Amino acid sequence: MSEVSVWAYPWDLHDLGLEAAMTTLAGVGAGMVSLATSYHAGRFLQPGNPTRRVYYPQDGTVYYKVDPFRWAGAEIVPVQADIVRTEGDKLAELVRRRDKGGPGISCWTVCLHNSRLGFLHPDHVVRTAHGDAQHYGLCPSSPAARAYVVGLVREIAERYRPDRIELESPDFLGFSHGFHHEKDGLPVLPEDDFLLGLCFCAHCLTRSKAAGIDGDAARAAVVALLDAAFVRELPETQFPDFQALGLEAFARLPALHDYLLWRSEPVCSLVAEIKAVVPPGVRLLLIDFEGSWWGGVDIAAIVRHVDGVLHCAYFTPVDRIPTLMAGARSVLGPEKTLIAGFQLFHPNVKDRADLEARVAAAGPWVDGYNFYNLCLVPPKRLDWIRTAVAGAKAR
After folding, report:
1. Of 105, 75, 109, 74, nearest to 90 (Cα)?
2. Looking at residue 197, what is its pLDDT?
3. Which of 125, 185, 187, 361 falls 20 to 30 Å from 237 in CA-CA distance?
4. Is the peptide bond before 187 cis (omega within 30 degrees of 0)?
5. Are 186 and 229 in contact (CB under 8 A)?
6. pTM higher than 0.70, yes or no?
7. Which domain holds residue 226?
């Protein structure tokens, strides 16, 4: 039986009513809820929510009851969302329902993407080669940021015992990930976007030096490349083969190339530390996507530290989905979980038939599907899930 889950926000479960929300999910074939348990800022247009049609969630908070004793002495601590007090602990309610035979629970956990904590702790955020703080992203090389993420996952896993935890953003967040009201008049080329997203904070420089990497030389190389881009009247690529070659496009700059190869280490070791605190019976999945190497994700190295991957194919053309999922399966091997992630946003997904084709294309390689999102699309569009899943099971 394939795992079918729908991503959902706790405020939507409150406004729909938990019973009505669960009935809706069961009706489209979902046996699991992927509940946001740690999330960032945003502005959401919610046609599926009967009360909060446009909603701005509290920035950088967690959606469960935090145990302050667990965080005594920690430099970075989670902030409990106000709605947990006013509208209830939806995660706890789902756990009680699951334990009585209700749907499974997956905790959708945003790790390092957190503007609130970034502004509170500027010494622990990603910093550009020029030293500018990227407040929306804590750095995976920072000991305090790592302790925060490990503690966050440990608290969720030990206290609530969900069926699985979905890790989002345990890596370096890119320059354009990003923030609100972003301004870019160059415009930024893909290579510049990548270079602006490289972190050279004190923690990265210290950690890379301990690994024998000359981070200062790498930083100087990036400063020179970006300064050259900034003085040009019009954009002009310095690495025309960047999109095709990826990291190898920078091989002619040995210090930078070595640094780029090293930067997967903080991400991989952080995931390993997380896995070490997750109790048996709670599966750990990494949310992955094409191009995640930009953030320092080496999926081949990470897979031994997770129980599976939730691979999002939001924008992948349908004819490329088989190749994408087959590649993910080959890295994971036959025993670990592979979930395909799809969104229901139009026009990225044109119609019901388009979603059916996408799900069918992934089917031979995956163990299940996640769909985004319960209330960010019109209610009638959720029924696309039912026909897509039914079609995949019939094959």
Report:
1. 105
2. 96
3. 125
4. yes
5. yes
6. yes
7. 186-262
